Amino acid sequence: MLSLIKLSPRWDVHDRRDSFRLQLVCLKYLGLWPPENADERTRSRYIVYGWVLRVVFLHLYVVTQVLYFKDVKDINDIANALFVLMTQVTLAFKLEKFNYNIGRIQACLRKLNCTLYHPKSQVEYRPVLHSMSEVFWLMIFLMFLAIFTIVGWTVSPAFDNERRLPVPAWFPFDYQRSTTTYALLFLYQTIGIVMSATYNFSTDTMFSGLMLHLKGQIVRLGSMVQKVQKLRNKAVKCDDEWKSIRARIEDHSKTQGKTYSEVIECVLFHKNILSFIDEVQDIFHPSIFAQVCASVIILCMTLLQATGDDTTMAELLSCALYLLVMTSQIFIFCYVGNEISYATNQFTEFVGYSDYFKFDKATGKAIVFFMQMTMKDVHIKVGTVLKVTLNLHTFLQIMKLSYSYLAVLQSMESK
Fold this sequence. Notes:
- By secondary structure, the chain is an all-alpha fold.
- The protein has helices at about 20-30, 40-65, 75-100, 100-110, 120-155, 180-225, 240-255, 260-305, 315-345, 345-355, 360-375, 390-415, and strands spanning about 380, 390.
- A hairpin with a 5-residue loop joins strand 1 (about 380) and strand 2 (about 390).
């Protein structure tokens, strides 16, 4: 286990999947990562195992929180129950979408390691290694943030005069009368909180991680374009996808020359990256849209609970940590979307750095055509009917909207 979380991992640029090592360990034990090379019976047993975990520690967990609403008396009670419930309902939806698309997600990780995405010169190593480190440290950051939040939630009931569970929930018996019953329910909710947090940061960082890797490949392509006139003859181990592209490049090299073939390689690589971005976006966009929409209510209700008159210092600290987790979650989505848009917007500048006007007529035309292709803006959008663009402006709008709803609810409470 220590080898998985060592602080300075040495990355192999030809094994980019290794940057997801922590996510894959968590997903494996949570029943969300079926063995890729196992037989059908083994995969079926594993899927049942994953369903049992989710039913017991997520779906049943959500039901007890929904039933709590039959006893709410005012807006503070609603805020106390709703900010956690919205997180759980959204998580349940995201996990079912993740489980439904697991075959495509596993295929994306396999594609990430194909020869096409291997750096082929020293200058191309840097963006690839940087992306791998970003993915790894993003997981570390969210994992430790979740640990602090879990500790805050489980410790805060100790500061109350009466027995209180970490999360508001309804049960068909009075758990306050029996120490054993209260302890068992407390343990059940603690396990549920830990699993929910692990589900969240493990699945969310799959989208963010893939996008960060693609951003690194975009930067790497920029290096390839800037040095397009330099020949690269280093042999690399090929897989089927790279062989088909390599064959097309060799045909152009024989008829139009080596420099022309390198331009075609950049064009084909560019198309492949955009196709990969579309695939990742298509897999995760319903889940992220649900998270973005729910975050407005979650942030608003968390702030409302934190600003209540009877809020204890322990509850205030728990709300602050939870607010930090939810804000970080949305910020990371918007950040990676912003990074993809920014990196793709640099393509025209990268192409302009090459001496395309010094090339022969066919090569010059190919580079100008490539420049026109790269002028199209690439934005990561989520949602089907209502489209939301993931960028930093969207993040600020979510924060403003949450604060506006909070002001309305506080005015209603004062009346």
